[in-house]
Amino acid sequence: MLMSQKYGCTQHQLQRTVYFNTPLAKMLSFFVIIVLCISRVSTFDTKVSQNARSPSESYLISIWQNRLYLYSAAALVFGIWFSLKLVLRKKSFSKDVGPWVYKAVKSNDSPDRDTSVHVSGVKIFYGSQTGTAKGFAEELSEEVKTLGIPAEVIDIKDYDPDDQLADECTNKSVCVFLVATYTDGQPTENAEWFCKWLEEASTDFRYGKTYLKGLRYAVFGLGNSVYVGHYNTVGKNVDKWLWMLSGMRIMTRGEGDCNVVKSRNGSIQADFVAWKVRFLKRLLALAKGEKKSCSGNCKTGGSCKNKRKDGQEKGEEEEEEEKAALQNNSSEEDLIESSSDEEDSGLQDEKNSGSVVDMEDLGKIMNSAKKAKSKEEGRGDGQMVKLSKLNGVKKIEDDGERREMITPALRGALTKQGYKLIGSHSGVKLCRWTKSMLRGRGGCYKHTFYGIESHRCMETTPSLACANKCVFCWRHHTNPVGTEWRWKMDPAEKILQDALEKHQSMIRQFRGVPGVKPERYEEGLAVKHCALSLVGEPIMYPEINTFIRLLHSHRISSFLVTNAQFPKEIRSLVPVTQLYVSVDASTKDSLKKIDRPLFKDFWPRFLDSLRALGEKRQRTVYRLTLVKAWNVEEMQSYSELIALGQPDFIEVKGVTYCGESSASSLTMANVPWHQEVVAFVQQLADMLPQYEIACEHEHSNCLLMAHTKFKVDGEWWTWIDYERFQELVQAHEESGGQQGFSALDYMAKTPSWALFGANEQGFDPADTRFQRRNKTKDISGC
Ligand SMILES: Cc1cc2nc3c(=O)[nH]c(=O)nc-3n(C[C@H](O)[C@H](O)[C@H](O)COP(=O)(O)O)c2cc1C
Ligand code: SF4
């Protein structure tokens, strides 16, 4: 209406113009004009001789006499109109979707033509030191473009995999990695961060095994076979890590060899050209929408899902099957491009060879290793034990007779999961929140609740062993289990020193990484907090008290989490900044189901541990993990457990899904929504007059209930004055334990953004929130 007024015409006029402009209307008018012209010419010839007839009779007769001209004119007009239409349609279609898809559709004989875009573009990443890979990337890009497919060359150092890689799963791009290998199998400088990130992600359950599902990729490695043992390691690894995250390899990995004697095609350039030809062929097939499945001739024989029996229909989800086939067949050697047509082979052996050992298998490895050792030594598990002087944990008297907690198999598996192992029973790992805060993207929920500076926090454990096999344990039972200390023991000084060194070296790898704040990087090198919660049960380590004292002497705060199975050890523990017990369930039955404890008397131990916590004077916390349909219904029992231990704080968080595992039956359906956690906490708070909801960390699905003694003049003091704590604990030590202190002596005021109900929902406004593509892959922290 507005438009018609603006241009001074009525809607009716507009409609008429539109009708007139349709191709059919144009054709009809053209036809009428031609008919009129022809008839006029022919009637002029006969006018003179047929003067006697009436004008209408003459007109009709002339039309009849010239009917042949009319038919021809009509046929001519229709022919011109039809050809014009065809040309116009072809032009607009090829302009919209690109000639490669157009060609694909053109060559498709199927009646229902697929007009969707199958490849939106090709991203060519290069990891190059002296320019060969970069040159190849540019060459490939040009050739891809000549096919009408957009291509982009990307220096891999300018790409942030954490932010961007998951997006490639859905944007229909194809990612190509051209990566060179250098001394000792290391990546080039520009690919260092990408490789490090990818390796960690591939073994970190928090990303999940399917993190890159949908990503289509191809790898060409550049190397020199004279470097025996490290030949093309980077290409192999990148290919393997992408695959482990469920990326879809579109063709076998290519390997370029600078060693002309051994190079398959005579030179690295020729190797690249051979691979490139195959790549372009595959790319065109993908652009046409073709799906390539395993030939069925792979080495797995019967187990290959794509192996067809005669006359058998292929499965319904062809693409899924293709993926399964890719991942199920043949061994590492088949992954390297060969002259044979049998490509798309898989990497099952890679998985089985220890890169990710199934957690249950690890348990078996541990058990059989234990049994073998016991047999060898002619004794069972009933070893001589003696109580440690340092705390109550039993330990074997003679160190010489004990075995190491970390076996070589376990060491390999844990190392591949990103743990930095220390000595024979300890470990350290860089927490995701430490990385997040280094980049100014917010800290963990302990930053919100207690003022922990996540970028200065070291997550470690002096005991990888544990006495539970919790269903939601994010280590999936890679760690050994046991009810008492029966291993060789490393001194606390050595563990701390190594932990600090390894943590610092992991922080150093963030130097210059895109997004890392220089001031946070500098601060991160000086550890201020230690979260003793990485894996296992720290309190099992017989020298845990020495370890804690050492932390405090370095002015490092201590947050210790125990599984509430060692009440004696809790009682004999020296003051820690904050002591946690995990309260994973509120009844005996659900605790057994969720924690799967090794102790037969696990329930009395659990209750006594809570009582022991109640006797502590420093800050204490219950950590409740809500597992929907498992433990959320037990409100009354929870309130009774809280009365038993009278903790200062109660953290309530929704369980984090750790991905599928044979070790856990937990599914996404067990993960409560944030609003469900809030509703649970509100109900619980109604039953506990001494507690109120103080803080919230929405992006970890976590809330904090605090005892009202931390609410001073209507304001919450849930944060910690870390300096004050260090002074108090030092005075306590110097007085030989005489000078006590309590939780209220080192509390600090909670900032407004951290409070429950604040607009920020627990996100520090000093940082910038980064939304993950997949929220279910977010994690709450230790
Ligand atoms: C100092 C040096 C060390 C190398 N180390 C390895 C190695 O360990 N394994 C390997 O396969 N290739 C190795 N190479 C070969 C390179 O990967 C190969 O020359 C490659 O084409 C270099 O690619 P760029 O020019 O893109 O950096 C090394 C080359 C140099 C110069
Ligand atoms: S989640 Fe735990 S280890 Fe990570 S920064 Fe927070 S307190 Fe430290």
Automatic annotation (TrEMBL):
Stretches for region Disordered: 292-362
Domain Flavodoxin-like: 122-280
Annotated Radical SAM core domain residues: 450-694
Keywords on record: 4Fe-4S, Iron, Iron-sulfur, Lyase, Membrane, Metal-binding, Nucleotide-binding, S-adenosyl-L-methionine, Transmembrane, Transmembrane helix, tRNA processing
Residue ranges, compositional bias (Acidic residues): 331-347
Biochemical pathway: tRNA modification; wybutosine-tRNA(Phe) biosynthesis
Cofactor(s) annotated in UniProt: [4Fe-4S] cluster
Gene Ontology terms for molecular function: 4 iron, 4 sulfur cluster binding; FMN binding; metal ion binding; tRNA-4-demethylwyosine synthase activity
Enzyme Commission number(s): 4.1.3.44
Transmembrane regions listed in the UniProt entry: 20-41, 68-88
Keyword Iron-sulfur: yes
GO biological process, any: wybutosine biosynthetic process
Catalysed reaction, written as an equation: N(1)-methylguanosine(37) in tRNA(Phe) + pyruvate + S-adenosyl-L-methionine = 4-demethylwyosine(37) in tRNA(Phe) + 5'-deoxyadenosine + L-methionine + CO2 + H2O
Pfam families hit by this protein: Flavodoxin_1 (PF00258), Radical_SAM (PF04055), Wyosine_form (PF08608)
Role noted for this protein: Probable component of the wybutosine biosynthesis pathway. Wybutosine is a hyper modified guanosine with a tricyclic base found at the 3'-position adjacent to the anticodon of eukaryotic phenylalanine tRNA. Catalyzes the condensation of N-methylguanine with 2 carbon atoms from pyruvate to form the tricyclic 4-demethylwyosine, an intermediate in wybutosine biosynthesis.
Similarity field: Belongs to the TYW1 family.
Protein name: S-adenosyl-L-methionine-dependent tRNA 4-demethylwyosine synthase TYW1
